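Researcher: Predict the fold of Carboxylesterase 2.
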Amino acid sequence: MDHQTKSEVARVVFPYVEILKDGTIRRLAGTEVAPAGYDPETGVLSKDVVIIPKTGVKARLYRPTNSTNKLPLVVYLHGGGFFISSMADPKYHDSLNKIVAEANILLVSIDYRLAPENPLPAAYEDSWAALQWIASHVDGEGGGENWINDYADLGQLFLAGDSAGANMSHHFGLKIKGSDLDQKLKIQGMVMIHPYFWGQAPIGKEATDHFRKSMVDSWWSLVCPSEKGNDDPLINPFVDGSPSLAGLACDRVLVVVAENDILRDRGWLYYEKLKKSGWEGKVEIEETEGVDHVFHILDPSCEKADTLFKRLSSFINHGKAPVSVV
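Model: Structure tokens for Carboxylesterase 2 follow.
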């Protein structure tokens, strides 16, 4: 970067974003795009569809090409702190191809609008609208996506996501109960990979890792212009006034954490709080040793990523009886 360009920078949100003095957002990561299509390595086919024409929100759908049964439907919410990445990010595209092939599922990856151009709760609103779009396919109510109509077993519906996407899965697992979607979408389970929760008071390694704590602090202040800061209920689900975890609208939850992740202790806290909340479902936790945040997205071909994908498949397919494609 030359001196003139440096002088134009008003704020750096390390290491991913620069905000120029004229308001321009310069993303330094998560901007690459991989096209949808057939992946010969996994035998998975993908395509892009516009699902919310008013806002331009899209989704990338994935399905294995060798299945003769209707498949569990996984609604996937990508990570990126709410401010980088997309459904077309090559790292997500590669990892989701592998997950779909391993678990033999139909997957819908939602491409919500990003902050700070669209501050929170825009990402939540877009993703909730995407769930309403999914619900339009239940009981022949008019949903027009043939992959969902032809290949999805809507009785086997899962919410999944990593980081910011896991955060949204949690909120939707609570919001859906008693909503207009409650009778249409029966969430069988949630997969929360390296969930992005935070708080003003540090816990665990946050208390000693001052550099990474300040880094995550800056991410949240970028995306959520809230006077509550790190104790906004969107990022801290345990502050006073937050809905009880006992209201989760599913029977099973898998929390995945990584040993070296600054968010690890928040994932464990969520697991412990959920166990003690009075929720009647079953929660499991899986910790991967020696790795950091979203390692499986950054390197989906590594051995530990393969182990994680098998664990996700086992969770999703637990007790599932195949439904034939008519």
